[in-house]
Design brief:
The protein is about 30% helix and about 30% strand. It is α+β, with helices and mostly antiparallel strands and about 260 residues long. A hairpin with a 2-residue loop joins strand 1 and strand 2. Bound molecules: pyridoxal-5'-phosphate. The site of pyridoxal-5'-phosphate has 14 residues, from helix 6 and strand 12.
Length: about 260
């Protein structure tokens, strides 16, 4: 790989983090759909999906529980920031060991804080899993206490957007709410799966602008991503959450369907 790759030089690219379970990449079609959508928005060359799938399966084979990371960049070239025409995209596939989180983070829930860092608004990039992750790097450096599983990020208008590595859901009244991601945030593959699940089970859900006090008053909160599936929130900024019912149902469902790295 060239040191001149635009992924390294400018963060000019996208990535996917995929759970490997029982030797297979999980939620593959959803990861590809998001990659495809990102590629269109950034005007990157279309990914060779059949080859990518074959490479991902080869890397996953034999791994009981692991993580597959796919980087897809605009490759080398262009004058300064100006993208090369045509671009020759570069892809990198990496397999990592599965993260070892305590099983209690699923059964009892996690303790969560608010981060001080504010996410910038950028509609042109909102929702994408692009390679520029300095906001998350700074936010994750805000705490070292291993008992705190995640930090929530607000934007400059005071709207809660997501966690440093997860999306957020809140049960307020009888509605399931998740932040709108039209100015900031990553539109998670697991978030999309959960919204479809909610629709299937007749749960009312909405994308909403949620403030810090909205989430502090929620009956239930949970965090989601492709690896963890769902973590119920046990406490936020020291305040205990009274319920975990929807998260518990989701965990049972995701575990039975073997879609992510929930411990057995
Ligand atoms: C900032 C951020 N938001 C949301 C997510 C959830 O995305 P997904 O469900 O596709 O894993 C991630 C995943 O790593 C993330 O880093």
């Amino acid at each position: 790989m060239s040191v001149l790759d635009r992924g390294l030089q400018y963060g000019d690219g996208l990535f996917e983090t995929v759970a490997i379970l029982d030797g297979e990449p999980r939620l593959w079609e959803r990861h590809m759909a998001r990659l495809r959508a990102g590629v269109e928005r950034l005007a990157l060359p279309p990914p060779p999906e059949a080859e990518l799938h074959e490479e991902a399966c080869r890397l996953s084979a034999g791994s009981g529980r692991a993580v597959l990371k796919i980087l897809y960049t605009r490759g080398v070239g262009g004058r300064g920031f100006r993208p090369p025409e045509p671009a020759r995209a570069m892809r990198i596939l990496m397999r990592f060991e599965a993260p070892e989180y305590p099983a209690a983070w699923w059964s009892q829930g996690v303790d969560v804080r608010f981060c001080d860092l504010r996410l910038g608004a950028q509609p042109a990039l909102a929702g994408l899993k692009h390679l520029n992750r300095l906001e998350q790097v700074l936010a994750r450096a805000e705490w070292t206490d291993p008992a705190i599983a995640e930090g929530l990020l607000l934007d400059n208008n005071g709207a809660v957007i997501e966690g440093t590595q997860s999306n957020l859901f809140a049960v307020i009244g009888d509605r399931l709410l998740t932040p709108v991601l039209d100015e900031a945030g990553v539109a998670g593959v697991m978030r999309a799966w959960i919204l479809e699940w909610a629709a299937l089970f007749g749960l009312n859900w909405e994308e909403a602008r949620l403030t810090r006090s909205d989430v502090l008053e929620a009956r239930e909160l949970f965090l989601t991503n492709s690896l963890i599936g769902v973590w119920p929130v046990r406490s936020l900024a020291g305040r205990r959450l009274p319920e975990r019912g929807i998260a518990r149902e989701l965990i049972a469902c995701l575990r039975a369907a073997r879609l992510c790295l929930i411990p057995d």
